[in-house]
Design brief:
13-stranded mixed beta sheet, 3 domains, elongated, 13 strands
């Protein structure tokens, strides 16, 4: 059951990626001509002037080099920094710890950081309105602190600052005025009722005529589908991440098969145990227990066994989560295990399963005569029964299927690793420098 919980929570986290954003249903990532996810900075102002279906536009880009933050004379900390437009929090929903997200990115050299980064830089002291150096140069002022999202997201960052700040700390000639300089990912928030098909055509018409021959390849990718979009596999940004939906579905099937093995084992064991305890039900009937009371007793005992197994499994998963994350690559939010929704669904599920698994033997034993129970003449499940043979055969079949799934997952992991190496520029030992990578993007 612990394994089923791990796989189920992981798959749930993957399949609900970016579902926590309030306006997530109207947020899209624009993919430009030639299936290029990098778009020119000048596109934003043209969209806002000429495309009526777009409510807000946000550009994103990362730093060329890994940023280093330092507070006063403390030890420098390597982290990440994302440049965005000031409407970022209109598109994406994050819980604020301190500060005002509506105005946090309006002024240049202002920064929004996560709670984890705040504690690393400033300790438990408040970080609002305090400054930190970026790469031993410009000072950024903390205007807001946010919580890391409890759910999975395709966008990851520790610090946010404005595009205006980018002009100061990372100036690039023509970056925001030329169509040929493509350094940004462009996200749009559509107005209520706006159609993505019509909007993407309007955006495509904004590009220079020499690129419009590829306008059929442009599209708006919904925020909730970016994580499992094959197009994102060709993107080498360090803040946009993608997953493998096929692998997730395989792991979900593995969880179901493991649960089936557990249920079959429970059927085999419980049927043998009830034959040993059948005299107990006979005594209960002799002293006046009704048919319903015996039925309730059997089903209740089965449910309690499932319930204890559930809480022991949750405890086991909670104590081994760090090991699981470090050595298996299966990352999930531990807070999901203790959420009321998860506990309610889990308890309801085991109640239904325990009742279905135990109902037939419970009806058989409760409806039998007390004399037969005392003499143990109620036939159970013989050792050589056809049903038991079928259950054992099903167990072996599931085991073989699990081995096949393991090999398939390993193949998917190897394929994904080879793609990752290619995307990062590691071709026959050659790694792109930031300068070469910048030219390649152009």
């Amino acid at each position: 059951m612990a394994l089923v919980i791990i796989l189920s929570v992981y798959c749930y986290s993957e399949l609900t990626t970016d579902h926590f954003h309030k306006n997530g249903d109207r947020v899209y990532l624009f993919m430009g001509p030639n299936k290029n996810l990098y778009t020119p900075g000048i596109l934003k102002e043209h969209i806002e002037m000429s495309v009526p279906g777009v409510k807000s536009t946000v550009r994103m880009s990362s730093t060329w080099d890994t940023p280093v933050f330092q507070v006063e004379d403390k030890e420098p900390i390597t982290s990440d920094l994302l440049f965005v437009d000031e409407d970022f929090f209109k598109l994406f929903t994050y819980k604020v710890v301190g500060g005002n997200l509506e105005t946090a990115l309006k002024e240049p050299l202002s920064v929004v950081i996560t709670k984890t980064l705040s504690e690393r830089l400033f300790g438990r002291e408040g970080a609002i309105d305090k400054t930190m150096k970026l790469n031993n140069g410009k000072e950024l002022t903390v205007k807001a602190v946010i919580e890391e999202p409890s759910a999975n997201s395709c966008i990851s960052f520790s610090a946010l600052t404005s595009i205006a700040t980018r002009k100061i700390v990372q100036p690039e000639e023509g970056e925001l005025t030329k169509w040929g300089t493509c350094n940004f990912h462009t996200f749009v928030l559509l107005k209520e009722g706006a159609r993505p098909e019509e909007t993407v055509k309007s955006i495509s018409a904004l590009f220079p005529k020499n690129t419009q021959k590829h306008s059929a390849e442009t599209q708006l990718i919904p925020l909730k589908k970016i994580y499992f979009s094959h197009l994102s596999l060709y993107d080498d940004s360090n803040y946009l991440h993608c997953g493998d939906q096929k692998k997730v579905m395989i792991l979900l099937m593995v969880a179901a098969l493991v649960l089936m093995i557990a249920l079959i084992n429970f059927i085999n064991i419980s049927s043998s145990q009830w034959l040993e305890k059948i005299r107990q039900t006979g005594v209960m009937k002799v002293i006046g227990a009704s048919h319903f009371a015996v039925l309730r007793h059997i089903l209740g005992e089965s449910f309690l066994l499932f319930l204890v197994s559930l809480f022991l499994a949750i405890l086991l998963v909670g104590t081994t989560s760090d090991f699981i994350n470090a050595y298996t690559g299966v990352h999930f939010n531990l807070r999901l295990l203790y959420s009321p929704t998860f506990l309610l669904v889990s308890i309801s599920g085991i109640m239904i399963l325990s009742a279905l698994i135990s109902l037939i033997p419970a009806l058989r034993i409760s409806s039998s005569k007390a004399v037969d129970n005392l003499k143990r003449t109620v036939e159970g499940l013989p050792e050589n029964s056809i049903l038991r043979g079928i259950l054992v055969a099903v167990q072996f079949t599931i085991a073989i299927t699990l081995i096949s799934f393991t090999l398939l997952i390993q193949k998917q992991v190897n394929y994904g690793s080879s793609n990752l190496g290619f995307n990062q520029g590691n071709i026959i030992g050659i790694k792109l420098t930031p300068e070469l990578d910048k030219k390649r993007r152009y």
